[in-house]
């Protein structure tokens, strides 16, 4: 009876990875240009999604709005361990966007709202690649809504708290390689939501030096409407691979602890630094409940992951070129939480080194145009499939990944 549900394992071994290192970049064009170093940065209201403590400093009598779009392209290449054949992922674009609004309601209290798309990916391998039984195509989209309240404790210190509502939508498609028919495939779709909390503190030790610290709790997405379907299955194997089925599961997006410093070196030059610890170790295992289908009873399948917490370091700089133009630059290094034995071609993660650049142009006192671009290069990862560990879906070979992220937006004041 256990074989009836083995075709579900690749989905969930990859689904756990969707709580890994697939962020779509800093949620704001100006912040992206700084490499994401925004825990102590007040140059853009987009920082409140990282540190709600900034809000007390950002809020004033004007309604301030920042909005824009984000596009990301992740491309991985694979060289098989036995075949030595190179396969490139097909080109896909992961779209996203952001919206922020802030306003003070009193001398000491300000409110804000952020809508962001912080996690997501779209992986698509060629239909005939050697790992098609593990994954052919997979996509994740997430949407975060965070109402925030900021309090000005005194002239130098501000605190803030935000409530996070998260919604995620997931789909995956893979081949059933034991059949010659290329239409023999399994497809999975699910969606779910969860709540979290974001708290932060911002302070200044003088006119030139500022610091920030924030903590965002993990968010558990409960997916109670999962649908699994198969096509191209011979009638004789209908009991092994049900045409349709239901499943429920949940997984946790990790917590983040960020500490940042911003130092105005000169009148025109500001440098920011961030250190972030992300709690990926909550991804120890994934438990899923498969509903009865035909003659198969309800079952629980547990997939071990053993992820590790990971660090990230980000440095950003902005330079005021003139009265209207500000140049941005950033450098970042992100550790991967995924060990070699758990690499999965659904989403290839690696230690990444990234650079970014951008600008902000002040068209008028109440309108600014912003744009940024970032490039991340991932280290070589080598996967070795272990046929005796069925909970880890993989194909042996080496992966290399690069990521391109671009964002454009506007900042308004009314």
Automatic annotation (TrEMBL):
InterPro entries: OMPP1/FadL/TodX. Its main location: membrane. Pfam families: Toluene_X. Coiled coil: none annotated. Keywords: Cell outer membrane, Membrane, Signal, Transmembrane, Transmembrane beta strand. The keyword Iron does not apply. Transmembrane segments: none annotated. The keyword Transmembrane applies. Gene3D superfamilies: Outer membrane protein transport protein (OMPP1/FadL/TodX). Residues 1-19 form the signal peptide. It is found in: Cell outer membrane. It is a multi-pass membrane protein. Belongs to the OmpP1/FadL family. This is Outer membrane protein transport protein.
């Amino acid at each position: 009876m256990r074989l009836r549900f083995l075709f579900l394992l690749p989905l969930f071994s990859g689904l756990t990875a969707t709580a890994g290192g697939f962020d779509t970049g800093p949620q704001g064009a100006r912040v992206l240009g700084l490499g994401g170093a925004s825990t102590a940065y007040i140059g853009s209201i987009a920082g409140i999604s990282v540190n709600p403590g900034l809000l007390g400093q950002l809020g004033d009598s004007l309604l301030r709005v920042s909005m824009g779009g984000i596009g990301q392209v992740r491309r991985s290449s694979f060289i098989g361990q036995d075949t030595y054949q190179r396969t490139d992922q097909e080109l896909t674009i992961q779209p996203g966007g952001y919206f922020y609004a802030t306003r003070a309601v009193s001398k000491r209290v300000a409110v804000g709202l952020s809508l962001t798309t912080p996690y997501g990916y779209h992986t698509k391998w060629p239909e005939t690649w050697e790992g098609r039984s593990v994954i052919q195509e997979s996509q994740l989209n997430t949407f975060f809504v965070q109402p925030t309240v900021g309090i000005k404790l005194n002239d130098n210190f501000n605190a803030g708290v935000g409530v996070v509502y998260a919604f995620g939508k997931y789909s995956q498609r893979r081949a059933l390689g034991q059949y010659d028919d290329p239409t023999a495939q399994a497809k999975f779709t699910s969606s779910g939501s969860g709540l979290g909390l974001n708290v932060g503190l911002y302070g200044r030790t003088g006119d030139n030096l500022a610091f920030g610290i924030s903590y965002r709790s993990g968010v558990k997405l409960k997916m109670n409407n999962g649908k699994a379907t198969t096509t191209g299955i011979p009638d004789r194997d209908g009991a092994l691979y049900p045409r349709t089925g239901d499943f429920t599961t949940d997984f946790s997006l990790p917590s983040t602890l960020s500490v940042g410093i911003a130092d105005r070196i000169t009148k025109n030059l500001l440098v920011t630094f961030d250190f972030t610890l992300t709690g990926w170790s909550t991804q120890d295992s994934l438990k899923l409940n498969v509903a009865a289908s035909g003659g198969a009873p309800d079952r629980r399948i547990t997939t071990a992951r053993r992820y590790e917490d990971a660090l990230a370091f980000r440095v950003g700089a902005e330079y005021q070129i003139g009265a209207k133009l500000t140049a941005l630059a950033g450098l970042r290094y992100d550790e991967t939480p995924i060990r070699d034995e758990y690499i999965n071609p659904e989403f290839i993660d690696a230690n990444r080194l990234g650079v970014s650049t951008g600008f902000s142009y002040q068209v008028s006192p109440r309108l600014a145009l912003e744009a940024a671009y970032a490039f991340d290069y991932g280290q070589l990862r080598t996967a070795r499939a272990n046929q005796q560990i069925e909970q880890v879906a993989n194909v042996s070979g080496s992966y290399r990944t690069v990521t391109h992220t671009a964002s454009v937006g506007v900042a308004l004041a009314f």
